[in-house]
Amino acid sequence: MQVGTQLAEGSELHAWRRFLAGATRWLSVLLLGSAAICWVAANWPALDKTTRFAGAQALLAVCALAAAWVGLRLRTTPDTRRRTAGAVLALAGLVLGALLALLGQTYQTGADTWELFAIWALLLLPWALAAGSQAVWLLWVLVLNMAALLWLGEHLFSWWVALSGPGFPSLVLAALNLLLLAGWEWAAHHWQAGTRVGPRVLASLAVGVLVLALMVGDYIIQGLGTYTGLAWAAVTAGLGLYYQRIRRDLVILAMLAGGVICVSLRVAGEWLLRLEPGVWVTLPLAGLLMAEAVWAARWLRRLGARPVMRPADAAIAGEGSADAEPAGPSAGLPVEATAAPAVPPMEVAGGLPPAPVVPATPAADTVTATATDTGTVGAESPPASLPADKLPGSPVIALSDAPAGRPETPWYVHALLGMSAWLATLLLLLFLALSGLIASREGALVTGLALCTIAVVVLRGQATPFWRQCARAIGFAGQILIAFGLYDATSLTGACLFVLGVGAAVYALAPDTLLRFLSGWMMALASAGLVWRGLAPGLENDRDMLDLLLREDALRATFIWLPVTVAGAWLAAVSFWLSHWRLPPSRVGRLDPLGWAYAMAVQASVWLAGGVSAPQWPSLWHLHPATAVLTAAGALLPALVGAAMLWPRRGRLPATLVYGLPLALLVLAVFWLPSPGIAFALAWMLLGFGLRKPRLTIFGILGLLSYLLLYYYQLEVPLLHKGAWLAGAGALMLLLYGLARCLPRPDRAPAPAREPVTRHQRWRMAAVLGGLVLILVVANGGIWQRERLLASGRVAILELAPVDPRSLMQGDYMALSFEAGRDVQRLSQDDATQGGEGPGLFARTEGYVVLAPDAQGVARAVRIQDMPQPRSGNEIVLRYRVRPDGVRIVTNAYFFPEGQAEHYAAARYGEIRVDDRGTGLLVRMLDAQLEPL
């Protein structure tokens, strides 16, 4: 799209100021929150429980008080106050989860996992109501969904049954998210809540669980007749009508279309297999899949080309709805008609650096935007015909009409067609594998070359959209067959070079974005093989490489996966940079599919890559210099990307920003050494903003969130070290946030004066402080109850059998199986048999087991009963629960400091304190001689 720009003096600085302030604010929240969770999970023995609880509650109080201060006293605009307070409360919400995890970890309460998330959601709710922030609400939504999923797993006696086909669990989860979606839309209509993220997440959760239940069921045709099938059809139709007629959101409509394609594919496949079982069924399925995808893409394009009536215009015309989306093709814009946010200055055609800043002319006093089906302008531009003087602090931008010709395909259409191409490729490969048409690896190689040639010829011709979609699947399948044919090649280097060359040839010759993207994946795979070959000269062929990759070894993660991901990240960044600033105008964007392929491949595999801390890097240098250099190159990538984005703009931006940002990122590179995924995600965010590619920025944010979730389970870096590095990086990001706010403002946007505190603000801050008081009362009340039980409870010693995984948020633990639990199961089966219910059935799902000590003092089960009474003088009554993992007595886990698994492997007994009501707490582990470990 060609964009004409006329920028007010200082507008580019204003855009960078806002981007850096928002990015550093949320990065500090994510890093500090992750550090708190890692610190709790590390279970550091150097701190006693009093210090731990005091530190966690102090941090929580500081966050809540800071949010209250920001909401009332910060000298800035109301929108900035709300965003900043929301970020601080999001951090407080993460610390709240860490505090609850610390409570369960310290006292070994044995509470069901869903209870932790349910209490977390309940205590977080006042802050979500007070913040009015999408981030806090989304955190609350995810915590609530996790609580519901865990509750279903606990009470249905199977984790997988919660999502294993048509039935009650999928309906519960879908109904929960539909209810939340309705509430969000109501808030958007009445309270002007943003709709770009929240509704899409909730819609994907509601529809996704129903589609998954239908896809994994035994018989999909029968499943469609169940309540789940009827619910899926009703939800799809209802949401489709709402987001097409009432508030257009093409992203949600694309998700609904994807669900219809998946379910119809399963229905058609089952029906065809019943008529004529055989491998030939895959061909009509592939044709149906591609036809549906092409039809859905056309439908979405037509919807995107239709103008959306504004609420004001609809009211005048007497049609539409009051909460209809503002004009623009990409739905999901905020419903509120507030002043538009600052829009980064857009680039002229060709992706070249912006022209020198010129003063605004009278002709540019109005911001205009033309609706196209790209979904880009409408998502990033302010409402049309809004006077520039109504946009305080925003740059003045005049967007010209889109040039004549074929419009750019929206990203959600690319995603839909890409999903179809992937599935069609799998079906085609399945057909070739089972049909016997390819009998050797040489045949696979020749067939792959032929398919690639056919795909290029079709795409370079005047083929219809259906045949273009077929060519994409054929071209990708051909490249996979070529890689398969070279699997046993004598030279691994030669095989990788051949795959790389074929991928590059298809990329250059086929004028199709999706096939170029898929070819980029094959090029990424071949590049990884070349890096592996260079770092491990002992590899002889593909089989040796596969054996190497399947080994779970921290050393392999550092010496193999880390360099591969670093090389891929650099290639992705260079591809994006060359695509926009170094190619001729006629070829701008040509390397974008390659950059996207490498970037996604990197984010998909970076969780396998180990990291090294700064003190360990010299040892790595002495051991393997090439790996050390690549490790440092990965940590330095954000700094170099920042310099590459700012240096061409040095004439329009102050030196403090041009030189200060790369220097700050250079300092932060020390913190990215043990966590390379954060560096890569930060690089995508900087590239996305600097190259005016908002989707790449969003991809960086999603990549960062997913990496932080997986980084917790990486064993190469200890949890305590992770917490320290993440906390240090988060503190520096917080400092950078303050420095970003100190950057000069545009001349026409003076610093806002402090406004008087409104009654609404006071109520919000009262809710924040009230939520803090409620949390502290609940947490300290729980601490007091457990300390009282430890001080006065009776001692019971139970025999156990441990194992040692890592818990979500609570660190390393031993999974416990008490001998008394087996006795409860036996006694329950005896009661069920005597009651006529048949053997193997539990008469109770909860109850009390009566224990009596034997000659060694080990408590043995005597009987089970429904109430704590009766009992004799030396008997101990203990509550039990029946859960998916068996009979749970007190707890099914014992948490210990990281790295002490071997020490606690000698545990044979557990010491428990029990009160008169049958509530017990696990105190410590004992060895075979009943000595404390």
Quick description:
With 933 residues, the protein is α+β, with helices and mostly antiparallel strands. Helix content is 61%, strand content 6%. A 4-stranded antiparallel β-sheet has the order 7-6-8-9, with helices on one face. Strands 3-11-12 form a 3-stranded antiparallel β-sheet. It has a 3-stranded antiparallel β-sheet with strand order 4-5-10.
Written overview of the protein:
The protein has 933 residues and is an alpha+beta fold. It has a domain at 793-926. It has 30 helices and twelve strands. The strands form four sheets. The protein has a four-stranded antiparallel sheet, covered by helices on one side. A three-stranded antiparallel sheet has the order 3-11-12. The chain has a three-stranded antiparallel sheet with strand order 4-5-10. β6 and β7 form a beta hairpin. The termini are far apart. Residues 1-10, 157-164, 310-406 and 836-843 have low confidence and may be disordered.
Radius of gyration: 30 Å
Strand order, main sheet: write it out. Answer: 7-6-8-9
Approximately what portion of the residues adopt beta-strand conformation? 5-15%
Number of DSSP-assigned strands:
12
Which blocks of ≥5 consecutive residues have pLDDT under 50? 1-10, 157-164, 310-406, 836-843
State the share of residues found in helices, binned by percent: 55-70%
Distance between the termini: 69 Å
Characterize the main sheet: 4 strands, antiparallel
Number of helix segments? 30
Label the overall shape. Answer: globular
User: Mean pLDDT, as a whole number?
Assistant: 76
User: Structural class given helices, strands, pairing?
Assistant: alpha+beta
